[in-house]
Amino acid sequence: MKTSSTQFVLAARVLHWLIALLILTMLFIGVGMVASVSERHEWLISIHKPLGISILILAIIRLIVRLRNPPPPLPADLPPIQKLAAHASHWLLYFLMLVIPLVGWAMLSAGGYPVMLGHSLRLPPIFPVNAAAFAILRHTHAWLAMLLFLTFLAHLGAALYHGLIRRDGVLWSMIGNRTR
Ligand code: HEM
Fold this sequence. Notes:
Elements: H1 10-35, H2 40-68, H3 80-110, E1 115-117, E2 121-123, H4 131-166, H5 170-175
Antiparallel strand pairs: 1-2
Bound molecules: protoporphyrin IX containing FE.
């Protein structure tokens, strides 16, 4: 399955770009949801929930792929502080991809709302009904989503730095088919 030590395996690359697209879409849907009071709000929520659960499932698969296929090493001449920042931000992204959907699901459970994925598929509650917990989880969901957005921007900036300024092959290791 592993194609070369200078690039991520195909499954990791496909999952990376698919999840990136879903997360970007989700952040805009989330903000659009809280900014609209018309019937569009209900429509956006009905997209937000299944998309969020899809991100959770894809992130779990991606984590398994990542643990089974170690990523290509960062360039040897990259300063240690940048290596540390890269590793820390990658694990933060994994953490947020798993925790934000779970907090969204727990929030709706705490509020006593059914978590519907489409018309007939209903997920079980994962938190007891509790109004105070609902309020805390709702704020937590929003703040973690904001942190995800900031981490996403830093990640994008780092990718462009590697691809356009250092030109060290790091960006290509996630795009594929080009050696350093
Ligand atoms: C990676 C996945 C997710 C991301 C990035 C995300 C992002 C967001 C954002 C940015 C908001 C707006 C926060 C605010 O400003 O108040 C939001 C609200 C919300 N999210 Fe998520 N979310 C995710 C997953 C989920 C899941 C899985 C569920 C439920 C199963 C969910 C349910 C909700 C609900 C109910 C709201 C509040 C809507 C409202 O009050 O109008 N989210 N989300």
